[in-house]
Design a protein that fits this description.
A hairpin with a 4-residue loop joins strand 3 and strand 4. The protein folds into two domains: 2-80, Glutaredoxin (3-Layer(aba) Sandwich); 87-205, Glutathione S-transferase Yfyf (Class Pi), Chain A, domain 2 (Up-down Bundle), CATH 1.20.1050.10. The protein has a four-stranded mixed β-sheet, with helices on one face. The protein has helices at residues 11-22, 42-47, 66-76, 87-108, 110-119, 124-148, 164-178, 187-197, 200-205; strands at 2-6, 27-31, 55-57, 62-64. By secondary structure, the chain is of the alpha+beta class. The two termini are 29 Å apart. Helices cover 53% and strands 7% of the residues. The structure holds glutathione.
Protein backbone atom coordinates (compact mmCIF):
# COMPACT_ATOMS: atom_id res chain seq x y z
CA UNK A 1 0.00 0.00 0.00
CA UNK A 2 1.15 3.55 -0.71
CA UNK A 3 2.29 5.64 2.23
CA UNK A 4 1.75 9.39 2.16
CA UNK A 5 3.97 11.44 4.44
CA UNK A 6 1.88 14.55 4.90
CA UNK A 7 0.27 17.08 7.22
CA UNK A 8 -3.41 17.90 7.51
CA UNK A 9 -3.12 21.69 6.93
CA UNK A 10 -0.48 21.52 4.19
CA UNK A 11 -2.03 22.51 0.86
CA UNK A 12 0.47 20.44 -1.12
CA UNK A 13 -0.53 17.40 0.97
CA UNK A 14 -4.21 18.24 0.56
CA UNK A 15 -3.90 18.37 -3.25
CA UNK A 16 -2.17 14.96 -3.28
CA UNK A 17 -4.86 13.49 -0.97
CA UNK A 18 -7.59 14.78 -3.31
CA UNK A 19 -6.02 13.02 -6.29
CA UNK A 20 -5.46 9.78 -4.35
CA UNK A 21 -9.10 9.82 -3.20
CA UNK A 22 -10.50 10.72 -6.63
CA UNK A 23 -8.65 7.73 -8.03
CA UNK A 24 -9.82 5.58 -5.13
CA UNK A 25 -6.26 4.68 -4.13
CA UNK A 26 -5.96 3.55 -0.52
CA UNK A 27 -2.94 4.92 1.33
CA UNK A 28 -1.42 4.88 4.77
CA UNK A 29 -1.43 8.34 6.36
CA UNK A 30 1.92 9.16 7.93
CA UNK A 31 1.77 12.44 9.76
CA UNK A 32 4.70 14.86 9.60
CA UNK A 33 3.82 17.59 12.08
CA UNK A 34 4.90 20.83 10.42
CA UNK A 35 3.58 22.71 13.46
CA UNK A 36 6.17 20.83 15.55
CA UNK A 37 8.88 21.25 12.89
CA UNK A 38 9.12 17.47 12.48
CA UNK A 39 10.00 18.01 8.82
CA UNK A 40 13.28 19.59 9.95
CA UNK A 41 14.29 16.53 12.01
CA UNK A 42 17.08 14.42 10.58
CA UNK A 43 14.68 11.45 10.40
CA UNK A 44 12.47 13.24 7.86
CA UNK A 45 15.54 14.63 6.09
CA UNK A 46 16.45 10.99 5.36
CA UNK A 47 13.01 10.50 3.83
CA UNK A 48 12.77 13.72 1.82
CA UNK A 49 15.97 15.69 1.13
CA UNK A 50 14.01 18.91 0.49
CA UNK A 51 12.15 18.43 3.82
CA UNK A 52 8.76 19.30 2.38
CA UNK A 53 5.51 17.37 2.43
CA UNK A 54 4.12 15.37 0.78
CA UNK A 55 6.34 12.37 0.10
CA UNK A 56 4.71 9.36 -1.54
CA UNK A 57 6.28 6.02 -0.72
CA UNK A 58 5.15 3.58 -3.41
CA UNK A 59 6.67 0.62 -1.56
CA UNK A 60 9.43 0.61 -4.16
CA UNK A 61 10.55 4.24 -4.28
CA UNK A 62 9.93 7.51 -2.51
CA UNK A 63 8.49 10.25 -4.70
CA UNK A 64 8.85 13.97 -4.00
CA UNK A 65 7.09 17.12 -5.18
CA UNK A 66 3.30 17.05 -5.29
CA UNK A 67 3.29 17.89 -9.01
CA UNK A 68 5.45 14.84 -9.79
CA UNK A 69 3.41 12.68 -7.39
CA UNK A 70 0.13 13.76 -9.00
CA UNK A 71 1.39 13.18 -12.54
CA UNK A 72 2.73 9.76 -11.43
CA UNK A 73 -0.68 8.83 -10.00
CA UNK A 74 -2.34 9.92 -13.25
CA UNK A 75 0.04 7.67 -15.20
CA UNK A 76 -0.16 4.55 -13.04
CA UNK A 77 -3.85 4.89 -12.26
CA UNK A 78 -5.41 6.60 -15.30
CA UNK A 79 -9.03 6.07 -14.18
CA UNK A 80 -10.82 8.30 -13.61
CA UNK A 81 -8.69 10.68 -15.69
CA UNK A 82 -7.79 13.96 -14.01
CA UNK A 83 -6.25 15.42 -17.14
CA UNK A 84 -8.25 16.07 -20.32
CA UNK A 85 -7.70 13.80 -23.30
CA UNK A 86 -6.73 16.65 -25.65
CA UNK A 87 -3.42 18.50 -25.55
CA UNK A 88 -5.04 21.94 -25.44
CA UNK A 89 -7.24 20.93 -22.54
CA UNK A 90 -4.26 19.50 -20.66
CA UNK A 91 -2.37 22.74 -21.20
CA UNK A 92 -5.27 24.75 -19.78
CA UNK A 93 -5.60 22.51 -16.74
CA UNK A 94 -1.85 22.58 -16.13
CA UNK A 95 -1.84 26.37 -16.43
CA UNK A 96 -4.21 26.72 -13.45
CA UNK A 97 -2.28 24.08 -11.52
CA UNK A 98 0.93 25.93 -12.42
CA UNK A 99 -0.30 29.29 -11.15
CA UNK A 100 -1.08 27.69 -7.79
CA UNK A 101 1.89 25.32 -7.65
CA UNK A 102 4.61 27.53 -9.12
CA UNK A 103 3.49 31.13 -8.60
CA UNK A 104 1.36 31.17 -5.44
CA UNK A 105 2.36 28.35 -3.09
CA UNK A 106 6.17 28.73 -3.24
CA UNK A 107 6.13 32.36 -2.08
CA UNK A 108 3.63 31.70 0.71
CA UNK A 109 5.19 28.45 1.97
CA UNK A 110 6.00 27.98 5.66
CA UNK A 111 9.74 28.60 5.31
CA UNK A 112 9.09 31.83 3.40
CA UNK A 113 6.52 32.99 5.96
CA UNK A 114 9.02 32.30 8.74
CA UNK A 115 11.74 34.18 6.84
CA UNK A 116 9.51 37.21 6.30
CA UNK A 117 8.63 37.12 10.01
CA UNK A 118 12.17 36.65 11.34
CA UNK A 119 14.42 38.46 8.85
CA UNK A 120 12.07 41.33 8.07
CA UNK A 121 10.61 41.62 11.57
CA UNK A 122 6.99 41.15 10.55
CA UNK A 123 4.17 40.30 12.96
CA UNK A 124 1.18 38.11 12.09
CA UNK A 125 -0.53 40.94 10.21
CA UNK A 126 2.62 41.70 8.22
CA UNK A 127 3.09 38.07 7.26
CA UNK A 128 -0.60 37.75 6.34
CA UNK A 129 -0.32 40.88 4.17
CA UNK A 130 2.60 39.23 2.33
CA UNK A 131 0.60 36.04 1.75
CA UNK A 132 -2.53 37.92 0.70
CA UNK A 133 -0.59 40.01 -1.81
CA UNK A 134 0.63 36.94 -3.74
CA UNK A 135 -2.69 35.15 -3.38
CA UNK A 136 -4.51 38.11 -4.91
CA UNK A 137 -2.25 38.12 -7.94
CA UNK A 138 -2.81 34.39 -8.53
CA UNK A 139 -6.55 34.42 -7.89
CA UNK A 140 -7.01 37.49 -10.13
CA UNK A 141 -5.46 35.47 -12.95
CA UNK A 142 -7.41 32.28 -12.26
CA UNK A 143 -10.72 34.15 -11.94
CA UNK A 144 -10.03 35.84 -15.30
CA UNK A 145 -9.15 32.49 -16.89
CA UNK A 146 -12.34 30.85 -15.59
CA UNK A 147 -14.37 33.83 -16.79
CA UNK A 148 -12.79 33.72 -20.25
CA UNK A 149 -13.51 30.02 -20.67
CA UNK A 150 -16.85 30.18 -22.46
CA UNK A 151 -17.07 26.38 -22.76
CA UNK A 152 -16.92 26.01 -18.97
CA UNK A 153 -20.46 25.07 -18.02
CA UNK A 154 -19.81 22.82 -15.04
CA UNK A 155 -18.72 23.54 -11.50
CA UNK A 156 -15.12 22.62 -12.31
CA UNK A 157 -12.07 24.46 -13.59
CA UNK A 158 -12.28 22.60 -16.88
CA UNK A 159 -14.75 20.15 -18.42
CA UNK A 160 -17.46 18.29 -16.57
CA UNK A 161 -15.36 16.24 -14.12
CA UNK A 162 -12.65 17.17 -11.59
CA UNK A 163 -9.14 17.61 -12.91
CA UNK A 164 -5.85 18.25 -11.18
CA UNK A 165 -6.59 21.99 -11.56
CA UNK A 166 -9.46 21.55 -9.09
CA UNK A 167 -7.21 19.68 -6.67
CA UNK A 168 -4.69 22.55 -6.73
CA UNK A 169 -7.32 25.27 -6.52
CA UNK A 170 -9.43 23.79 -3.71
CA UNK A 171 -6.40 23.11 -1.53
CA UNK A 172 -4.91 26.55 -2.10
CA UNK A 173 -8.19 28.31 -1.34
CA UNK A 174 -8.19 26.49 2.01
CA UNK A 175 -4.74 27.92 2.73
CA UNK A 176 -5.71 31.39 1.49
CA UNK A 177 -8.76 31.52 3.76
CA UNK A 178 -6.62 30.33 6.67
CA UNK A 179 -4.43 33.39 6.12
CA UNK A 180 -7.44 35.68 5.81
CA UNK A 181 -7.29 36.35 2.08
CA UNK A 182 -10.46 38.14 0.97
CA UNK A 183 -12.10 35.72 -1.46
CA UNK A 184 -15.10 37.96 -2.26
CA UNK A 185 -13.61 39.23 -5.57
CA UNK A 186 -13.47 35.63 -6.81
CA UNK A 187 -17.02 34.26 -7.24
CA UNK A 188 -16.02 31.78 -9.97
CA UNK A 189 -13.17 30.38 -7.87
CA UNK A 190 -15.53 30.09 -4.92
CA UNK A 191 -18.14 28.31 -7.06
CA UNK A 192 -15.55 25.73 -8.14
CA UNK A 193 -14.57 25.13 -4.52
CA UNK A 194 -18.21 24.80 -3.43
CA UNK A 195 -19.02 22.22 -6.09
CA UNK A 196 -15.82 20.23 -5.51
CA UNK A 197 -16.31 20.16 -1.75
CA UNK A 198 -19.65 18.42 -2.29
CA UNK A 199 -17.80 15.45 -3.77
CA UNK A 200 -16.88 12.71 -1.32
CA UNK A 201 -13.21 12.31 -2.44
CA UNK A 202 -12.64 16.04 -1.91
CA UNK A 203 -14.53 16.08 1.39
CA UNK A 204 -12.53 13.11 2.69
CA UNK A 205 -9.25 14.90 1.84
CA UNK A 206 -10.20 18.04 3.80
CA UNK A 207 -7.64 19.04 6.45
CA UNK A 208 -10.23 18.95 9.25
CA UNK A 209 -10.89 15.26 8.57
CA UNK A 210 -7.28 14.09 8.84
CA UNK A 211 -5.96 12.11 11.82
CA UNK A 212 -3.44 14.82 12.82
CA UNK A 213 -6.00 17.65 12.72
CA UNK A 214 -6.75 19.27 16.08
CA UNK A 215 -9.96 18.15 17.73
CA UNK A 216 -12.79 20.58 16.79
CA UNK A 217 -12.92 22.09 20.29
CA UNK A 218 -9.18 22.91 20.14
CA UNK A 219 -9.21 24.27 16.60
CA UNK A 220 -8.36 27.97 16.51
CA UNK A 221 -7.79 28.39 12.82
CA UNK A 222 -9.56 25.65 10.84
N1 LIG B 1 6.97 22.14 -4.28
C1 LIG B 1 6.76 21.22 -3.21
C2 LIG B 1 6.54 21.98 -1.92
C3 LIG B 1 6.44 21.06 -0.72
C4 LIG B 1 6.36 21.91 0.54
O1 LIG B 1 7.27 22.71 0.79
N2 LIG B 1 5.27 21.75 1.28
C5 LIG B 1 5.09 22.59 2.44
C6 LIG B 1 3.76 22.37 3.10
S1 LIG B 1 2.42 22.98 2.13
C7 LIG B 1 6.18 22.28 3.43
O2 LIG B 1 6.47 21.14 3.69
N3 LIG B 1 6.80 23.34 3.94
C8 LIG B 1 7.83 23.23 4.92
C9 LIG B 1 8.71 24.44 4.94
O3 LIG B 1 8.46 25.39 4.18
O4 LIG B 1 9.63 24.42 5.73
C10 LIG B 1 5.58 20.29 -3.52
O5 LIG B 1 4.71 20.70 -4.28
O6 LIG B 1 5.54 19.16 -3.02
Amino acid sequence: MFKLYNFHASSTSYRARIVLNCKNIAFEYVSVRLDKAEHLDSAYGEINPMRGVPTLDTGEKRLYQSSAIIEYLEEVCPEPPMLPKDALGRARVRAIAGIVGSDMHPVTNLRIRNYVRDEYGQNVDGVNAWIQRWNRQGFDAIEAMLDADKERASGFCYGSTPTIADAYLVSHVFSAVRFKTDMSPYPLVQAVVASCEKLEPFARAHPARQPDAPKPELRRNP
